[in-house]
Amino acid sequence: MIEWRDEFILGIEKIDEQHKKLFQIASEIYEATKNQLITDKYDEIVRLITELKDYTVFHFTYEEEYMHSIGYRKLLSHKVEHHDFIEKISNTDYSRIDKDQDQYLMELLDFTVEWIANHIMKTDKAYTIK
To answer: pTM above the 0.85 mark?
Structure first.
């Protein structure tokens, strides 16, 4: 499981806090996959997907406003990456969740963790370089 590490720090307090929250949501997804006490995880999966989508929309809006305020030249391409992530989460196939809940959660987790880590390390770090 991926955890917050100092290498993810951008040095922008609010954005770093928001990124930590994204890691927290990813951890909740991981915990849901490991919870053997719940046989039907459908409602929990839907809750996590909704939380992930809602929080990323909030975070991306904040981050884009910040980039606009500093005159970041690659704002539009950055927004495209954000849009693509939201679109992927929004296009959740809820019928697949019912068929194999743990597999779906692991796919969601893999996608989310890889995307967050790569996006912070490559795309987000670019707007902090002066």
So the answer is: yes
